[in-house]
């Protein structure tokens, strides 16, 4: 029975993690960390606690991380929503700060959703930002760090994103014929993370989980 936190629980992957944690009895306390409280769809479960924080002043909220054995980090935005600087701030700086404070307050196993194709030396914003985030967290020396690199994230979100729709139109045959090659549903990412968190703890260092392995772990 462990205590965990979920950062980014209002996004598609974060919501999937929360919904699946609701059906798991292995976790005695689940701390949901975000910039605002939201109405949860999981009903009344006393194990869940919502904590409001200011990600720009995260050091002032260290106590919300304290006592958590495992962290699920699903923070992320897009350049179209937040702009270039906002994207870097959320996907790199906020994630890195969450990892740092989690480690300082006793987290032994940090799990973070990154992306396929990360490269800190890339000239492209998205892979470069994700690559820089991965490097900085890896250098922290967690006893156990799991970095997930999913391909195209499939979700049942109500709103339509033009970029996602274009990718789906172009890549649908590939996704259909090779379902583990370049895409994965957020429910599978969430299940892989939870299955990994339920494993007996061992100080394994850093593990990189590519898209195909996410599929495998989700069904293990």
From TrEMBL:
One of the GO biological process terms: import into nucleus
GO cellular component, one term: cytoplasm
Domain NAD(P)-binding: 10-162
Gene3D superfamilies: NAD(P)-binding Rossmann-like Domain
Transmembrane segments: none
Single GO molecular function: catalytic activity
Pfam family, one: NAD_binding_10
Lineage: superkingdom: Eukaryota
Oligomeric and partner information: Monomer. Forms homodimers during oxidative stress. Interacts (via N-terminus) with elongation factor EEF1A1 (via middle-region); the interaction is direct and competes with EEF1A1 binding to guanyl-nucleotide exchange factor EEF1B2, thereby inhibiting GDP for GTP exchange and reactivation of EEF1A1. Interacts with nuclear transport receptors XPO4, IPO5/RANBP5, IPO7, IPO9 and KPNB1 as well as GCN1L1/GCN1 and LRPPRC probably through their HEAT repeats. Binds NCOA5/CIA.
Name this protein carries in UniProt: Protein HTATIP2
Lineage of source species: Eukaryota, Metazoa, Spiralia, Lophotrochozoa, Mollusca
